[in-house]
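Quality-control log, excerpt.
Job 1 of 2 completed; input and output follow.
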Amino acid sequence: MSGEPWDTLNDPTAESLWWSTDNMGEAAPGVLSPLGWSVWGHVGERAAREALFRAGALTAGERAAPDDVHDRIVRVFCGRMAMQVQFLATVGDRMPGTSGQQVAAGIFGRVPDDLEFAPTRAQYPAVAARLPAVALATPARVRRLAVEADAWWAAQTAASASWDRGEAVAGLRIGMQWFGRTLTLHTLCLMTCVSPVYDLLTALVRRVGVGDVGALSGSGGAEMAVVSDLWRASRGKLTLDQVTARHGFHGPAEGEISSRVWREDCSPLVALVSRYADEPESASPTQIERRRAESERAARAEVLAAVPRWQRPGVAAVLDLAAKRIPMRGVGKRSFLQGIDGTRAAARRLGELLAKDGLLADPDDAFYLTWRELMLGPPPEAKELVSLRRARRAEYQQLVLPGSWKGTPVPIPASDTAADVVSGIGASAGVVEGRVRVLLTPDFDAVEPDEILVSPTTDPSWSSVMFLSSALVVDIGSALSHAAVVARELGLPCVVNTRTGTRDLRTGDLVRVDGTAGTVTVLERA
């Protein structure tokens, strides 16, 4: 199914290389459109390399995105975006205070058994020269850029409806620039501010033998703002227009550029506000935050009491840093999603204009061209090309790929058997029993309150329905994945990186989720 020059959704690879969708698949889930991949592939490769260079982990020669696809670290396989595991392991081996194994495990959740590591101190001088200043400055830079991104996104999406073709092409270029700028800074923040502090907190809790990492990881993230505003709308304190003005770049599969987000289709918001209206006041975000604050105070006191008095100032400083830095993960992500949506608005407008001129059969056909093809003008055979790519993407959507693989991925065959115990990474403590709701696509209308949500991955738009759930089980992810972070903020038991949860569990199954042990046990089959 590869080799055709028109198929932009399947890259070649050396059979010795390991790939994983565990991290990239959360940002851009499922099978991407040709435009979606062309934007992500172009921006993602450059953002990752630029961030690693600024941190001192890459040399000047490794900073630029290579022209040869075989040398790139971000690729696409059967429409799924993946990252090269060996490359990031190499980066970890160059960084003081960590290792290739820790970096690979932190990003992908698990490390392949035959992955080789080669620790070196060659980059230590560059890291020492750049990293401290970057780590200190980046949080403030992320917050400033978030304010700028809010204003740019509102202006870009409002203006796009009246653009002519030249303006739409310019808007597409500007949107990709904003996406690149925000994604680079977000990646830098994760690497230098969020992940190291989370690792420090985890090591502290493990050393003293008490405390809950989830309770100590801070609160007030960007995703909780979505939940809080939906709650306020359900109580008549905000209008739907006000919610979309703040969060309209969110929506089903929001990391895929062809998706329709809430500012384009607010019907999912209407349904969610109705669901929230049925919830009792005791379930409000304010009450959740109050309970969380109590848990954080108790966990903090427990940790401080467990260490000698002379160590307490240093331990308190670590706890303060964790509470401030870990929630930064959501701030940068909000900004790069706005970058994607500004790009989406330009592409949508271009599709309308090209279809009006007869160059495309349908406005949405624009998403089956690459960004270069849109900027330069559709090729003469654009309609035939779109038809071929639509059919191929539909074929890829029927395949199930593993979360990680070596060489060319082999689709997972369908199976009638299912395990009665599913294991993963315990990402948010607690034990709960309930009925399963397997959600392969973000069809939030199907979710009933207090169900256990089982999904391949989540993105910020899922926060709105996670609020209604009693626990969360996800196929991919790590302790710092979106699902894990939001589950901890909401106080929900959560197991990530199950690999097979959506295949082994069925809607209606009665299960016990243990977010501490990282297990899901089937008590009764539907």
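Job 2 of 2 completed; input and output follow.
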Amino acid sequence: MSFLKRHLPVLRTFTIILALLFTVGGALAAFERDADAIRLDSSGWRWAPATSWDESPPMNGWRPYTAPVEVAQKMYWLRVPLPAGQWKDPALFILHAGDNRAFASGIIIYEDMPARKGVRVNSGFYWHMFRLPLQLPDHVDLLMRNGELSTQNPSIELGEKASFVNRSLHKDLDNIILGGLLIFSCLVSIGFYVSHREKLYLYFALLAFAGGYASFVGNQLIKFLWSSPWISFLQETSMPWATFAVVGALEQVFPGINGRALKTLRRIVLWFSVLATAGAFVSVYFYTFWTSYLYLPIFLSMFVISYWTIWKAYRTRRDLESIWVMAGFTSLVAIAFVHVIRYWLPPNLYEWWPGLRDYLVSLPEDLIYLGLFAFVICLIRIIIYRYTAMNRQLTELNRSLEQLVASRIEEIRASNSELEIANERLAASQKESAEAMAESMMLEERHRITGAIHDTVGHTLSAAIIQLEAARRLLPLDRPQAEEKLEASQNLARQGLEDIRHSVRLLRDDLGHFDLPGAIGALIRDAEQRSGCRVDCRIGPLPLTLSALQKRVLFQALQEGLALGLKHGSSKRFEFELEAESGAIRFLLIGDGKTLPEHELGLGLKAVTERVSRLGGELRLQSSSGGAVLFLSMPA
């Protein structure tokens, strides 16, 4: 009772699988239908040696058919008596024969000789069926060869052709259905392997394909669909390949348990399967010996190692995978063991149990396919379990990722809030700095203007006073020259008055409403009138975000550039461009005069250079083939 309690899950699963096998097997057995045919008794047969496939039935030399082993590997004649009866569509059904040519009343009525054409034939599955004349002859003569290694008696039945077809349909339709299900499982598993790249799916696909192929070709119905003997001849390779797939699947399901033994066994079974498949195309003797006798110790080794591995996994894990593999593999191995004893043991080994062979023959021939299908169902259950577990892990991972993303979003939002506060503080600080800089520049500009008034107006007034003093002295002595001095004094007074008005106008300008294009135009007109030079001006669209400080710096740069070019560069013609380009203000003034060294630029232009640098721009004075170039660039 303690053992049953400990192993209740695996026993319950094993019982379910066995119940399923018995239920399906019983349903399929009930569906089968025997043919309304007469099995001809071989005691009335006669045989005779044959020397050529082109000869006719012999007239004499017929011997009683009592030693089938003697003639099994030879070409021979077989005379089969036919019982009288009423038949609508009489036909002979011959099993366990490779090549066959049938004669009725000395006339050929059927011929099918694949082995003569070099095609391998498994006489255990290959059969012949041909119509007989409605007026049945008393016998038919068959020129035949059972097979290169066949030791079985030909099985010959007489009946209606439709009855034979109906029997094959009922008897083997279950194999076709099982084969279709296994092949479908193979295709599904290949799809899983392509998407997941897990070897378990590949081994499962091979196992399902081996079982499906063996189920398809290991029946009589397949010849109605495909008459090539090759497909049934290769049926014996399915068991080694299925064994290889089982070992590989166990290695993947239970990694780390008997890993070295399973790996060695897998390699041995792989080489055995490859050599068995290649031997089918090379030598019938090698192929039969390889698959009939050498496979048995490999199967027993697989049984011992695999069951040992499954038992260890079951004892240590007791999870769903080990339970289903234990139950499914036990069912498969038990049925496969019965199959091996039934088909691969030499006949003399049955002498110790005379009734064993009769009991094994009475079992359904497709029992091995049902056992394999049950094991495939167990593997499908494991795959579904793994797939469900993987989906569950992915769901948990997605939930964790969602929580992590949500927490990161909250952190980012908090960081953004802090950055916004810092940006507001920085903007306020920058505004204060800009206002302080603007105020500083205004004071500096006023100092510069007052200095310019002192220098220019003071100089002009001093010159006017000197001219007036000279005129006063010359008035009694030389009146015309005194009048010239008075006129010069008058001109100097007017120029001083204009300089005073210009300086006052600059002081009155409101930096917040400074019209840069208008101021530049007035500056250019004033320079052209006073010096007689020519300035070609082109001003493009300027950004609205341009600050008053930037406008003042651009104006001062042009003012100092024109003054420098006129006073020291001897320029008579200028080209001026001002435009916005790629987020920056581009300023270009080209004069046709000479370029001055850097130490002669003057304090005004040097001050403008420093202001441009503080605003993030640059100001350069360089020479070109056309004259002097003043270049300025700053962020817009």
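Post-run check on job 2. The first helix runs from residue 2 to 6.
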